[in-house]
Structure formats: structure tokens, C-alpha cells
Amino acid sequence: MADTSQISPFVFGCGGGLVLNKDSFSYQPGESKILQNFEPDIQGGYKKMLGTTMYNSNIVPQVSSSNERVVMTALFNDIVLAARGGSIHRASSGSGSWTSTLTSLGTPTKTYQFRKFNFDGTDKIVIVTGTSQPQVMNTSYSTTAVSASGTSTTFDKVEIFRNHIFFAGASGAEQQLSFMGPFQTNDFTSGNGGGTIKVDTTIVGLKVFRNALFIFGLDKIFKLTGNTLSDFAITPVTRRIGCIDGGSIQELGGDIVFLSPDGLRTIAGTERIDDVELGTISKQVQERTDEIGTNNINSLVIRKKSQYRLFYPVTTGSEASAKAIIAVIKVNTNTGQLGYEYADMTGIKVSSCDADFVGTTETVIHGGYDGYVYLQESGNQYTRGADTFAIEGVYKSPDLTMGDPGIRKSMQRVIVNYKNEGEVDATLQLRYDYDSASTPQPGSYSISTGNVPAIYGIGTYNSSVYDQSSLPLIRQDVQGSGFAVAVKVNDFSTKPPISLKGFELEFVPGGRR
Amino acid sequence: MNYLQLTNAVLAELNEVQLTSAGFDSSVGIQTTTKGVINKALRDVYAAELEWPWLHSDKTQVTYAGQKEYSLPTDYRSVDYESFYLVPTELVTNSLFTSNISNWTTSSGTPAYNSGGNGRMRLNAAASYATLSTVKNKKYKLQVRVMDSSSGGSSLKVQVGTSAAGTQNLSTTLTVSNYGDGNILDTTFTATAATTYLTLDNDDSNNLDVDFAKVSQDIQPKKLTYITYEDYRRRFLTTSNTNNSDHYGTPDYVYRSQDGYFGLYSVPDSDKYTITYEYWKTHSDLSDYDDSPDVPARFHDTVVARAKYYIYGLRSDPQFAQFADKDYNDGIKRMRIELINAPTEMLDTRVNLGRARAGAISG
């Protein structure tokens, strides 16, 4: 019988997400140095991203140029409203043609904003373009322009608060908030409850959260409370930090997340401790937030995944190089602490986006720079026009020293614990000594397909296995040695997503040379 | 195993990343260390014994009249001074036709190379000659072997003279009667010029295959007796340093100088002697991935064991280093038993004071 007495196991679960702000000795084992197109899974581990498919196989009709991006995608009345080149079209999922719904809204200069509301038993959507009058559309797709006198016609921000429609972003009145009376859709007169409020900052975003309307300025944040014109009151949340772009503001996990100059913040944290550094929730990915440009920032929340996606493509960049940050609020399996975990997302160039329920199905859509509207969380590859591309998923663990960075570890085996939904086509790599060029780095090992458990009504013939564990363990013999060892998994396939749960590293401790 | 395979054998023992031929030159870390350790292990194996058979080599040295010392080969590490023999220098270049008939000039027809036996020159209605450097009035031995592969009964004309096909010194024929076996001509001639021509001619259209044609001065080969340098200095140095050719002659003794030369006494009186001897050479470190060591493949495990000894030492694993060291030493023992041609007897060279010689002592 082989002598295994010298072999030491080192076990860690995948949890903690992408961390970029630690030195190599401070990483926790489950954290990631690279987590690209793998998302922190609220069920534990890191799961490869789902892909995109076309929401509608027809391109949104252009107005004057094929370079026009989709500046609005809104799920409304179970269909999609998409704006391109100053016109709004609507279409259902599938291959039906787009129906022109609104035209002559002016050449878009920024992404349209919209809010859905229901003041009178009929769902409506109010759309602001920044280049024309706000539009209120009902479920019959008939539209009314907000043209009441006494106010600007070119708002680019909108929010619904206490049955009032609030606008901001009028050219020349960037600090002003205009609102209509309760349940009014085209009346700003004070006699009917409308009015204006000014703050001492350029307003970049509006967001309702619980009993307040938060007014995000470039360098300040205010909170509007009250019910009507008579008791509306403005109080500052902070006068020392603001929001970079209103497109980043989303409600997630009982709080509002927004992008500030020092990273992602929550309103609660910012309100409680003002601009103290502790208010940021993205210190671990500060390297990423620092590189975010303001070409066009969009965000959305996938509720069932407690996931916030912040898209920040470069207008002139390629689809493949377009980036996003994923933030998931979840319990870290290693620490038991609830917190934000992050990942990089690449390969989707989002021009505008929305996430909402169509029936009972949460639907995530985005409009592309190529004129198409795509469905996210769909398929196992990225769709770009008529072509499809593999999702390049990469996970790399910290460089693990297993308690003593001075001891050489001669690796024997890696046991991979993962969950798969079908065939797996991924590879495992070990990287020694911080990817040192002077240390031999072994090639990659294929991760074999674990048996998919058969669940009544879900199991697949010739694929699922009765009574099979849903978390297979794959034992892989490996080669090489080093003082620090990192595990890397690459999945560049178009197979169903794999969810990495944890690893066991078996090694023989060596000397200090 | 070649260098790559030896290196990978050690890396495999360590469960380290193995090399490929393409990546051999760009190795890093433990791979590079292991490559170095393989050469170190080979050096240890080579150094474990002086006379490993795979390092054996033969050397010939042509003498020059009046020159008493000759350099040993640059790659020698041990010389067998009991192996020195003096033989007459072969005057025919390419006398054996081992792989071609070059250095033979066509007189007529189309002489051809034939690969039968260990290589032959085929004459079919053809003649060919070799040019020899000779000394006028010196006697030479000539030996020719011919095969009648056509069984036609043709005769080979053997002519020695001062020109191609000349017969001034010798003209004879050689006929094969025992077909399939061939016939050998052993004869002599006395040169009459400084350049002599040996011509072999078959006028018939039958195949006559010349197996060899050797010419050398009529000197009897002899073993040279080894004497120590001290002995040489005491007995012969004064004479050999005398600037007079009277003491030149056919060497009888060989000695080892103190600076990488061997010396002869008597000092040679001719350029036509050839000294043959055996020596054991040094080795060259492996360099390219497909370089193979001289050690026979069945003993490569011993090399790997030695390399593992060093590597385990490097990796601070004394227990496995001891295991590897034992494997290495056991391997060296086996190699000595199998490969070293130990003498079976000792010679007692003490002075015999009037009694009968004790003779060899069986060992």
C-alpha cells in the first residue's frame, strides 16, 4: 500500500469573489484573483455566466445611420420598447418586425430614461430623452407629450415619487427639480400641486427608496421627503460626495447602490458615515471602478440572483473588450458574513438595459451598439448580430501558501468540487510561485463531466444519473511544485455553465529550497 | 534514453512538470536544475571507474624520423601502456574499400564499388590503380584478396611499377580457384622510385571483386615495452638527446612523459612506422535534447538514481536522497561486475636471482 502519510490536504470553498486590493499574503483562500464571466452564486461558489440571445431577430430600424445605438430598451406591457436614432419602436420576443411607435424625438445625445407608473388603473411609462418633450405612453401605445407651459421640454431624468412625476436635467437648469401635481401627467402648476425645487449641485440621477426621493448630484446627495408640495422637504445626505453617473443607480438588497468617485457606495452607508471611506462597498475592486469611463454607464439588477450589473463600455471599443462589473450580495461560504462579492464581465457591449418581470419570469434585456436588442441570461454563448461567441470564463484562486510560504509544496492531486448542468468542457491549471517565469508551469488538465443528477420532471434522458450527487468530486492528478500554488479554471466552451464550489489540494510538504 | 528522456525520468520521480523537445532549451527552475544534475550524475558515473568500456578508444600515431615524443589525444583520461604496438604504416589509402573506391584511379573500364562482405572494388573489364609513397630500394609487402563472384575463372593482374599499369617492380596474376572463398596474394616488391603505382586489372568481362589491397614496408609488427619515465631517463635520455642519428632505429620502448605525451625509444628512424594503442577518453556533457550518453541504456537507471540523489538533496529530502544514493551505488557495483574486464592474472616482474621463473599467479 502506498505511503500517503506525507500528503497534506488543503481545502477551501469558493467564496469572496474578485479581490484586487490585497497583497498576496492577505488573500483568503476562497477569494479570486481573476473572476471573469464567472458570477458569485448565491447558492455558493462561482458559476459561469449565462449567455445572450436575440430578443428579436430583427434589428431596430435606424433613422439616419447604421451606427445609431439603441438608446433605450424598456420592458413595458410584456413587450420591448426600443429607441434608436430618435424614434421608438416596439416588438415582441421572436422574429416579428418592429412597429414604429414614436418618431422625431431628436438625434439622441444620451441614453433615454424612463419610469413605469400607474396612477389611474392603466400602466403607463414616461420617457425622457434630453432632446425633446417627455412622453407618456399607455398600454395602447398612444403617447402624450408633456408639454405643459412653464417648464423645460428637454428633461433627461425622471422619477415617480408619492404619485408625483419628477423631472430633472433640463438644459440650463441642471440643478432644478420639476414635478407635477399628484397623479398629474401634464401639469406643473403649483395650484395643482406641481412646482420646482433647486439644489446646489448638478443633478445626475433620481431614485426613490422607501419614503424618500434621493437626488444624486455630481458632488452632493439630497433626500426629498414629504407627501405633497405642502410638506416636501429637502435634507442633505452628504454634501461631500456625489454620483458619477445616474445610470449606475439601482436598488439592491434593501439599499441603493450608486457609482461615486471612490467606487460603488450604498445610500445607507453613505448617509450613516458621510463620505468616510468605509461608505464604499467596492474597495476590493477599486482597480476596476477607477478605470470606468463615463462614455455610457448603464446598470440593472437581477433580483433572483441579488445581482447588480454595471456596464461601462467604451464607445469606440469592440464588443469583445466591453466590460462590466458584477456585484452580488450574498453570504460568503467561508466567513458566514453577508456582503458584496464581485466579478468581471466581458463580451457584452450594452448601450441601454432593463430588467423586469414578464409574467412571472424575470427578463433581462439590453440594447446593443449594433442596433439589436438582446436577452441576457439566455443560452450558453454570447450573440452578437448574426454570430455567436463563446463566453470566456476564467477563475483564478489566490496564490495559496497553505500556512507557510517558505515550504515547497509538491502537488499530487486536486479534487474539484463543482456543480454542472450538463456536459463540461473546462480546463484546470495550477500556477506556481505567483506565475513565476522561472518556475515550470504545468499544462492544463481537462475537467471531466460529472454526472448530472436525475430529478423527476427535469432529468434528461441519456444524461442524468439516478441518485447521483449534485456536487460531483473530480480527482485530478497534477504535477509541479512551488512555494505558492494558485488554481485556475478556464471555460471557453459553449457548454452549460459550471459552478465551482471548492477545491482540495493534496501536496507533499518539501524543504525550504 | 537521450538527454530529454533522462531529465524527464528525474522530473517524473519528483512529479514535476516534464519537458518537451520543443521547450527543452527554454527550461526554467527545477527543469534547468535537473538538466544540470543529469550531467553531474553522468560525470559521477564516468568518474566511478577509469576504464569503462564505452569510453574505450583506439589511436594510431604515425612516427616521424627523429621525433621521440608524441602528444596523447586531447580527450584521453587513461592510456593502456601495455597496448602499444609498432606496425608498418599502410601505404594504400582506402585499402579496404569499406564504403567506396575513392583514392583509386580508373585506368580502364568502369571500376565500381560493391557492398559485398565489408566492402569491395568490382572490376569487370576494368583496371584501377593506387599511388603509393615509397622509398627507393626499400622492400614492401603486398597483400591482395580477390573474389571471383562470377565464377568465371578470370585472373586479376597485379602490377607494381613507376607508372600506372607499370610492371617495373612486380607483375603477377591472381586467380580464384575456390569460387566463393576468394584467393589471397602475399608477395613483396622493392621500390625503385619515390612514387609507386599499384595497378589491379581484370581484362575479362567477369566480375572480380577485390576485397583489399594492402602495401606496407617490410617491417615486423612488435609490441612496445612500457618503461617508466624514471627508467627512461636513467637508461635512455642521454642517448636520445644526442644530436646524432646513429642511435635512431626501430622503437622498442614506450614511456609516459610528464606533460601529456608518450615517448619512444629508440627514436624512430623512419616516417613509415605506425604506433597503435588503446586509451579511455573523457566524455562530453550532454547539451541538445537528443544527445545520448555513452553509458549503455540498460544502466541509465543508475544515472537517474544519481541525479535523484542530488535533486532530493536540493529539495531537503535526506531520506529519499539516501534511497537514491543506495540505488546509485548498487548500480555502479553491477556495472563494475558486468563491464570491467578485470585481469585474471598478475605478473611478477621482480628480478629472478638464478631460480626458475615463478610465472603467472592465477587470479
Kindly describe this structure:
The complex is a heterodimer of chains A (513) and B (363). Chain A is mainly β. Chain A is built from 2 helices and 43 strands. In chain A, the strands form 11 sheets. In chain A, strands 1, 3, 4, 35, 40, 41 and 43 form a 7-stranded antiparallel β-sheet that branches. Chain A has a 5-stranded antiparallel β-sheet with strand order 2-34-42-36-37, with no helix packed on it. Chain A has a 4-stranded antiparallel β-sheet with strand order 5-31-30-29, with no helix packed on it. The model of chain A has no long low-confidence stretch (mean pLDDT 90). Helix content of chain B is 21%, strand content 32%. In chain B, helix 1 (3-13) packs across helix 2 and helix 2 packs across helix 5. The longest helix of chain B is centred in the last third of the chain and has 22 residues, at 318-339. Classes of the chains: A mainly beta (513), B alpha+beta (363).
Looking at CATH, which topology of the domain at 8-48 and 395-509 in chain A would you report?
A: Jelly Rolls
Described by the principal axes of the CA atoms, the overall outline of chain B is globular
Poorly predicted ranges of chain B: none
Strand content of chain B: 25-35%
How many beta-strand runs of chain A?
Answer: 43
Give the biggest sheet of chain B. 5 strands, antiparallel
Shape of chain A: elongated
Quote the beta fraction of chain A.
35-45%
What is the annotated CATH architecture of the domain at 8-48 and 395-509 in chain A?
Sandwich
Whole-angstrom Rg of chain B: 28 Å
* Chains forming the largest contact: A-B, 19 and 14 residues
Structural domain count of chain B? 3
Identify the strand order in the major beta sheet of chain B.
4-7-12-9-10
CATH class group of the domain at 8-48 and 395-509 in chain A: Mainly Beta
For the termini of chain B, the CA-CA separation is 37 Å
In DSSP terms (H or I, runs of 4 or more residues), the helix count of chain B works out at 6
CATH C-level class of the largest domain in chain B: Mainly Beta
Write down the oligomeric state. Answer: heterodimer
